[in-house]
């Protein structure tokens, strides 16, 4: 590996880390944002739904922009917008300013998520081995840091802008400096029988299984992030303090699973790792649904972190393999279903919990994540398809750094 690739990988990893911290700082302080602006309980879901909807718009726009602008450039300038929008949400004085900040956050985060994963997939292709999970692992690490800083801000009753400003002041310039070393990969040669075809276009029928897997994975993820505390407290009878633990456990196990996941993909292939992740996640939901008490419930949430953590990174990587001549367009389109799952997950579990039971509601994401087993072959690598050996680096695919390297 050349120094260009090493610097490109490190700088992209820092971008994932920064986004993990930024996103966690927003979502973990939603109650404080609601109080600051006097957003009613009836209006809050509108604000929350607007962010992923606009992020989907941003992702669709990115698919068109990357035809003329390098993903590295889009990432370089969308990340500061996301961070400044976060600061704006914490420092605004009225609801209109909050709406503008969240709108900017949503549009920019769609472009950021899509371009980050485009660069990750192209770097993985150039390396010739699985590294995609490592990027999402540092995203989880950033999320843990952001959630911890949010806890400090809430514990010390700090104003939102006071909590956000030091993070933005440190991470924003660091991300801008690091962006000098982003590496744009060239499109891979289109192999015979590749889904992209000779024209290198995206065939949505072929991409659809991955879109479903992405949606179901995020339904599971949003179930944990939005309902774990309430479930432990109201259904399993835990204390309020203990009810805050499952999401932290989930984030830590997500970090651990992603940290070791690339080694599993290199050793056994993507298909077995994805199948194992889906089964472990389904077992986790089953344990949560049937748990007799809070501690058993936390075992279930631990399993969920270990299982769900591999699905999203491998889905992006699989899209790049299926459409080697149009991986950027495939990833931008696939990224939309990240937000679809986020939008569906929390209301779905809430509606089922109210109409039926929250234990029963946990079985629905369990069934959905098991659908991944049906589509597991969509994750096959070249070595899976043709047998034996690991993919070697494509030296012809080594792109230029965004600063001209």
Automatic annotation (TrEMBL):
<dbReference type="InterPro" id="IPR011701">
    <property type="entry name" value="MFS"/>
</dbReference>
<dbReference type="Pfam" id="PF07690">
    <property type="entry name" value="MFS_1"/>
</dbReference>
<feature type="compositionally biased region" description="Basic and acidic residues">
    <location>
        <begin position="385"/>
        <end position="397"/>
    </location>
</feature>
<feature type="transmembrane region" description="Helical">
    <location>
        <begin position="195"/>
        <end position="219"/>
    </location>
</feature>
<feature type="domain" description="Major facilitator superfamily (MFS) profile">
    <location>
        <begin position="207"/>
        <end position="405"/>
    </location>
</feature>
<protein>
    <submittedName>
        <fullName>MFS transporter</fullName>
    </submittedName>
</protein>
<feature type="transmembrane region" description="Helical">
    <location>
        <begin position="42"/>
        <end position="62"/>
    </location>
</feature>
<feature type="transmembrane region" description="Helical">
    <location>
        <begin position="268"/>
        <end position="289"/>
    </location>
</feature>
<feature type="transmembrane region" description="Helical">
    <location>
        <begin position="295"/>
        <end position="319"/>
    </location>
</feature>
<dbReference type="InterPro" id="IPR051788">
    <property type="entry name" value="MFS_Transporter"/>
</dbReference>
<feature type="transmembrane region" description="Helical">
    <location>
        <begin position="356"/>
        <end position="376"/>
    </location>
</feature>
<feature type="transmembrane region" description="Helical">
    <location>
        <begin position="331"/>
        <end position="350"/>
    </location>
</feature>
<feature type="transmembrane region" description="Helical">
    <location>
        <begin position="74"/>
        <end position="92"/>
    </location>
</feature>
<feature type="transmembrane region" description="Helical">
    <location>
        <begin position="158"/>
        <end position="183"/>
    </location>
</feature>
<dbReference type="InterPro" id="IPR036259">
    <property type="entry name" value="MFS_trans_sf"/>
</dbReference>
<feature type="transmembrane region" description="Helical">
    <location>
        <begin position="12"/>
        <end position="30"/>
    </location>
</feature>
<keyword id="KW-1133">Transmembrane helix</keyword>
<feature type="region of interest" description="Disordered">
    <location>
        <begin position="385"/>
        <end position="405"/>
    </location>
</feature>
<keyword id="KW-0472">Membrane</keyword>
<dbReference type="InterPro" id="IPR020846">
    <property type="entry name" value="MFS_dom"/>
</dbReference>
<keyword id="KW-0812">Transmembrane</keyword>
<feature type="transmembrane region" description="Helical">
    <location>
        <begin position="131"/>
        <end position="152"/>
    </location>
</feature>
């Amino acid at each position: 590996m050349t120094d260009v690739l090493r610097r490109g990988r490190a700088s992209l990893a820092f971008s994932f880390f920064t986004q993990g911290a930024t996103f966690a700082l927003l979502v973990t302080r939603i109650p404080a944002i609601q109080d600051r602006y006097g957003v009613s309980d009836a209006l809050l879901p509108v604000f929350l739904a607007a962010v992923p909807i606009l992020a989907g718009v941003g992702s669709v726009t990115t698919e068109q922009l990357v035809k003329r602008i390098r993903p590295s450039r889009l990432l370089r300038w969308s990340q500061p917008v996301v961070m400044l929008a976060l600061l704006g949400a914490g420092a605004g004085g009225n609801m209109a300013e909050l709406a503008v900040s969240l709108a900017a956050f949503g549009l920019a985060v769609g472009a950021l998520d899509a371009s980050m994963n485009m660069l990750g997939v192209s770097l993985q292709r150039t390396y010739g081995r699985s590294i995609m999970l490592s990027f999402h692992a540092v995203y989880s690490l950033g999320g843990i840091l952001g959630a911890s800083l949010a806890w400090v801000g809430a514990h010390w009753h700090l104003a939102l802008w006071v909590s956000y400003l030091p993070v933005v002041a440190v991470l924003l310039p660091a991300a801008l400096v690091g962006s000098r070393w982003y590496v744009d990969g060239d499109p891979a040669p289109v192999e015979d029988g590749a889904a992209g075809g000779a024209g290198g276009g995206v065939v949505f029928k072929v991409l659809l299984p991955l879109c479903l897997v992405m949606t179901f994975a995020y339904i599971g993820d949003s179930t944990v992030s939005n309902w774990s505390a309430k479930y432990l407290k109201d259904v399993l009878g835990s204390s309020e303090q203990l009810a805050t633990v499952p999401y932290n456990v989930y984030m830590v196990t997500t970090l651990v699973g992603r940290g070791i996941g690339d080694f599993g993909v290199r050793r056994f292939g993507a298909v077995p790792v994805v199948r194992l992740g889906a089964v472990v996640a389904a077992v986790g939901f089953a344990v949560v649904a049937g748990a007799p008490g809070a501690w058993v419930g936390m075992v279930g949430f631990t399993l969920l972190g270990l299982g769900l953590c591999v699905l999203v990174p491998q889905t992006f990587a699989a899209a790049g393999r299926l459409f080697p001549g149009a991986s950027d367009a495939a990833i931008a389109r696939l990224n939309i279903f990240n937000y679809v799952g986020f939008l569906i997950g929390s209301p779905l579990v809430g509606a089922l919990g109210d109409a039926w039971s929250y234990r029963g509601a946990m079985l629905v994401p369990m069934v959905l994540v098991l659908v991944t087993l049906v589509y597991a072959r969509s994750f096959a690598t070249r070595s899976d398809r043709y047998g034996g050996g690991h993919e070697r680096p494509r030296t012809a695919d080594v792109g230029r750094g965004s600063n001209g390297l």
